[in-house]
Amino acid sequence: MVRLVSFLLLMMLTGAARAQASEFHVPPSVYDIPEGHDGRLIELGRKVFSDTQSYASRYVGNGLNCSNCHLNEGRKPYSAPLWGAYGRYPQYRNKNKRVVSFGERIQDCFRYSMNGQAPTLDSQEVKAITAYAHWLSYEVPIGVTLAGAGFVSVEPVQAPSAARGELVFQQQCVICHGVDGLGRKRADGMYQFPPLWGADSFNRGAGMQRVPTCAAFVKANMPLGKGFSLSDTQAFDVCEFMHQQGRPRDPRDSFWSNFFGG
Question: Where do the Cytochrome c domain residues begin and end (predicted)?
Fold first, then answer.
């Protein structure tokens, strides 16, 4: 009887551990990239995504890579992972005021987050990122929002404060992003840690310029390696502080609306 109870308890604990481990989609390993044409396109997409500066430089206007926001090469839950997005397109986007394809969503990332030019839908870069996202989404149901997709839900208990946010920035962010918020570069001139504002950061049309979107990203992912260590209010505060710093204009708007629009 004791052995039976022990066995059942062990099975329950094992099942709970498996349930916790499988809470989020687990994309295939890079070692599982197939050979042949499809595999080469997937690998190119992975390189474009993780080293956009080198593999898609003709479309980039700042110092960022796609993986600066979509962490761990687009794999990490609650950092807008590719596997959480691919199967949900086409979808209506209020930003575009119409239904867009996954390829068109990639175009917007280049235009706003990369502050560059949108590649054509038949470009090798768009095809490669699409193939990579499709591969990461292996066995993901179409049209289903998975746990860990997009960003985590956050809700401040008081109105965001840039003054409080500056304190959070000084205490939590400068070690990686620098006291001026302009990032830290490697010896080769590429950014080890990306700029949070300034000419080499995302422009005012990027989703990360929106305080709620920024706060949701920060809450789950920042400081790097210490996600969920800030309160919701702290995440909103530091993003309100970021929001007020200078950065490239939104290409949709006039100079004056960018200058005075905040």
Answer: 40-137, 160-246
Q: Is residue 96 part of a domain?
A: yes
- pLDDT tens-digit readout, 150-159: 999 999 999 9
Is the peptide bond between 195 and the residue preceding it cis, with omega within 30 degrees of 0? no
How far is the first Cα of the chain from the last one, in angstroms, to the nearest whole number? 70
Tally Cβ neighbours within 10 Å of residue 95: 13
Domain-located, residue 95: yes
- 115 and 169, same domain (yes or no): no
Same domain, 130 and 43: yes
Nearest to 214, CA basis, from 202, 226, 225: 202
Q: Look at residue 253 and tell me if it is in a domain.
A: no
Q: How far apart are CA 220 and CA 16, in angstroms?
A: 23
Q: How far is CA 126 from the centre of its chain?
A: 17
What values do phi and psi take at 78, rounded to 5? Answer: 65, 20
Which pair of structure tokens corresponds to residue 222? 């920042």
Give CA–CA dist 52/221, Å, rounded: 21
20 and 110 in contact (C-beta within 8 Å)? no
pLDDT of residue 258: 56
Residue 114 and residue 171 in one domain: no
Q: Is the pTM of this model over 0.85?
A: yes
Spatial neighbors of 90 by CB under 8 A, at least 6 apart, are 99, 100, 101, 102
Is the pLDDT higher at 11 or at 96? 96
User: Helices (DSSP H) in the chain: which residue ranges?
Assistant: 2-21, 36-50, 52-55, 71-74, 102-108, 124-136, 162-172, 174-177, 211-221, 232-243, 255-261
Cα–Cα distance measured from residue 209 to residue 205, given in angstroms and rounded to the nearest whole number: 7
The CATH code of the domain that includes 186 is 1.10.760.10
